[in-house]
Amino acid sequence: MATLEAAAREAGALALQKFRSTFKIWTKGGDSPVSEVDIAVDKMLRARLSKLAPAVGWLSEESVDDPVRLEHSAVWIVDPIDGTRAFIAEKTDWAVSIALIEGGRPTAAVLFAPAEDNLFLATAGGGATLNGRPLRANGESLKGARTAGPKTRLDALAAFGITPLPKVHSLALRIARVAQGSVDVGIAGPNSHDWDLAAADLIVHESGGRLTSFDGAAPTYNRPNPVHGALVAASNARHAMLMRLVQDRRVDLQ
Known about the structure:
Layout: H1 2-18, E1 25-28, E2 32-35, H2 36-52, E3 57-60, E4 74-82, H3 84-88, E5 95-102, E6 105-113, E7 118-123, E8 127-130, E9 133-134, E10 146-148, H4 151-157, E11 163-164, H5 171-180, E12 185-188, E13 192-193, H6 194-206, E14 209-213, E15 227-228, E16 231-235, H7 236-247
Parallel strand pairs: 3-4, 10-11, 10-12
Antiparallel strand pairs: 1-2, 4-5, 5-6, 6-7, 7-8, 8-9, 12-16, 13-15, 14-16
Helix pairs in contact: 1-2, 5-6
């Protein structure tokens, strides 16, 4: 993990050099912004991680998707800057996200928010930490639960007394903050991708929480189409409560 942490910190430092400065920006499919900084960080991480583990496949938001990744038992899933809109807008809620996937699930993860100097680490069966401090997702009630996600989902939960939070631009940070405890419920709308989720998924799982679809299924990564439906992250108790509400059709979050 030390080598993986070092790669994430190097990537974060590279991005931070350009943060709140001038750089090229353009749009890609779906009117999504991308910058020359995203591309530079992506190239740097691919070089570092490929050297670290040459036999591991590669999937990144800013690389052309090569189907050969499906032939690998292990794959790096990377978002060089998760929250590019925040990065461009000079906000701090963006992060470098790296996960190692084996058998469709993350086994190692690092999520680094350099503008906030927060580094999350997790290994399967080894727990999760933030800046070296062990994390634990706690809480049982929805009343007052600080909830981040699309407005339509927040509105659907309003009757249960949640506390809606301002938008967290990085989906990875939105989910990981459930493990941190600054978000109680994190919701992802449909059409999130592997690179938005994989690292944060392991961080939440290893903190004692869950990230699943609204039918309770954990995401599977490195599929031919790396896109997911709506998802929710919460402590085990809150997650179970939300699943009951959905199953009883008391709330529609999908």
